[in-house]
Structures are given as C-alpha cells and as structure tokens.
C-alpha cells in the first residue's frame, strides 16, 4: 500500500505529487494502480520523464497492468509479505502507502469496523521499514469507535492528519479516508 499520486479519480490529492515509488495495498481490481502508473509514469512511455514504480498488493488476483508490479495473492499482515515488499521496492522504500483494503464484511458493523482498523494499524506498523521520512499514508476506514485510536497513532507519526470523504463515496456511507502526510520516521526503527 505504498502510493504517491494525485488521486483525482477518488477525490484525493497528496502533497507529494513528485513521488515516484508507490505501493497500492488492497489493489484489486487495480483501478488505483492504473492511476498511480499514469501519475508516476511507471509505464516508461514518456522518455522525457523519470520512470516511477508502482507495487500493488492484494489477497485477490489482479490482472497484469503495464508499469505495475503486483504481489498477489498476498496478505499484508503476513511478515513474509512485508519482506517481499521490501525486496520488490527499488531502494526498499516507498514515497506513499495507499490502502484501499477492507475485510470481507460480516454485516456486524462494529466487528467489521474493528477488523478494518486492525488492518490499518497493521499497515501503519510497517511504515518504519517501508516509508521514506516525509512520506504519505492514505488508508480507508469506516467511521466508528476505534477511529480515534487510528487517528492518534497517525498523529504521533505524521506531521499532518486529515479525514477525507471522497465525492465518489455515497453520502450515507461511513467510508472515510485518513490522509497523513510528512512521515516523521520512528526513532529507533531498524532496517533488516
């Protein structure tokens, strides 16, 4: 879930539109990866611009996309997936972590919310190893009782944290995104 882009399709704009290494977690079916490939020119079709890198990660199969590398099926909560992400990222770091992940819904609102927050926190736990200082973290969540816990953690690690509700999201939907920018980097984080 490392991405750096101006995601106009979903109504997001990151502060670091010049970023060239992106990872899209929860990438299936691949629409965000398509936007990321275009924004970082990862397909290499513009010879006058530097070529970026897009890595998509998902439990589900994703059809190939020129300019993107997909790691699937893969579970981002599995340490082996984290290690594989590090191996695939040029330089071992990304400029942005983008998560559009969601657990399979049970229909029990509180349980589904807690499971999604847990996914976001797992991904946040990977930031010291994967995200460049100054990087951006964007994750989808559903509004609920545990949202404050996630927001507190993001505020500890990023200079700025905003809650965004994309125009494309249904008005009655509890779906919101946390956009955290300017990653401070965790003191004592050790690279493996």
Description:
By secondary structure, the protein is of the alpha/beta class. The chain has one domain: Vaccinia Virus protein VP39 (Rossmann fold). It is built from four helices and seven strands, in the order E-H-E-E-H-E-H-E-H-E-E. It has a seven-stranded mixed sheet with strand order 3-2-1-4-5-7-6, with helices on both faces. Helix 3 packs parallel to helix 4 (147-157). The chain is globular. GO terms for molecular function: rRNA (uridine-2'-O-)-methyltransferase activity. Belongs to the class I-like SAM-binding methyltransferase superfamily. RNA methyltransferase RlmE family. Keywords: Methyltransferase, rRNA processing, S-adenosyl-L-methionine, Transferase.
Topology:
Blueprint: E1 21-25, H1 31-40, E2 53-57, E3 68-71, H2 79-88, E4 94-99, H3 109-130, E5 131-142, H4 147-157, E6 158-164, E7 175-183
Parallel strand pairs: 1-2, 1-4, 2-3, 4-5
Antiparallel strand pairs: 5-7, 6-7
Structural class: alpha/beta
If you consult CATH, what is the topology? Rossmann fold
Elements, N to C (H/E): EHEEHEHEHEE
Strand order of the largest sheet: 3-2-1-4-5-7-6
Shape annotation: globular
List the uncertain runs.
1-18
Total strand count, please?
7
Distance between the termini: 19 Å
Strand content: 25-35%
CATH-scheme architecture:
3-Layer(aba) Sandwich
In which range does the helix fraction lie? Answer: 25-40%
Please tell me the overall pLDDT: 80
Can you tag this structure with a few keywords?
25% strand, alpha/beta, 4 helices, disordered N terminus, 192 residues, Rossmann fold, globular, seven-stranded mixed β-sheet
